[in-house]
Amino acid sequence: MSAITLRQLEIFAQAVEFGSFRKCAERIGVSPVAISDHIRALEAGLGQQLFLRQSGGPARLTVEGEAAYQRTVTILNEVNQLLWQFSDVRKVGKRKIRIGGHPFILRNTQKVFEDFAREHPSVHIDLDLDSLAPEIIQQRIQERTLDIGYHFAFAQAANQAPGVLCHEPLAVYVGYEHPLARQTIVNIEELQRTPAIHLSPRNYLRALIDLALSKVGLVDGLLALQSDDYGMILSTARRNQGFICMFAAAQHDVVADGLVCLTLEKPLPPLLVRQVLPTSWRNDALLSELIERVSEAIRQGDSGY
């Protein structure tokens, strides 16, 4: 029997509570593949299948999964009580490093944070994954309520501009049965006649994606949906009601959800991933070490544009 970890139990409980692996991944800032890997490892350790597998559907528990979930909740509650009981002792002398950024930017950083916390037990890493807008990140860095910030920007500046870590290419997706899915190359005029499935205007990524689309001639097109509900966006596309513009690095997961990545006659310009740091970060050995390791993990997740 394989060893069962507390992290596996936490992921299992969160997947049940959020209703799907994908929603769980979005909320805690990891990839859906990482969620699946933790669940499979837990199932191997228990020797039982916990979920009924169905692509793109809700996370439905087996009978054994229901029993395991009830026991897991009890275990996690007991662990939380233990930590709470000794929290005053445990947190004495702990330094908090606060990191904010879009969860997609930080999708490959979980192991970095886990390793860093293990190597530096006197440090507590506090993550804010609420897709903070650039101006909010900058303000919080200046106010010293955030130590490291990451955000997307439009790729107008040169690659060597301060704070640029890497490119994040964009792609366009439609449902399998959409007429454009059968075309080898899609021209912009055809896409212009197709309704768009967009993020809401209040999401700072919406303006960046609109700008990228405008650079290839897609402006003021039809709208099928504006929403920040990822599940609703995917289901609308699966029903062939329009196209989605999102990250090319998500292609594997998006295709698994029943969508097709289109090849456009004019490639979309990428977004940039920018890093925002306090002016004194080079004088802080711990912060400098963490910045270097997180930056490397983010660059490794670059799609190679």
TrEMBL record:
GO terms for cellular component: protein-DNA complex. The keyword Transcription applies. It comes from the Bacteria. InterPro entries: LysR_HTH_N, LysR_subst-bd, WH-like_DNA-bd_sf, WH_DNA-bd_sf. One of its GO terms (molecular function) is DNA-binding transcription factor activity. CDD domains: PBP2_LTTR_substrate (cd05466). Residues 4-62 form the HTH lysR-type domain. Transmembrane segments: none annotated. Keywords: DNA-binding, Transcription, Transcription regulation. Belongs to the LysR transcriptional regulatory family. This is HTH lysR-type domain-containing protein.
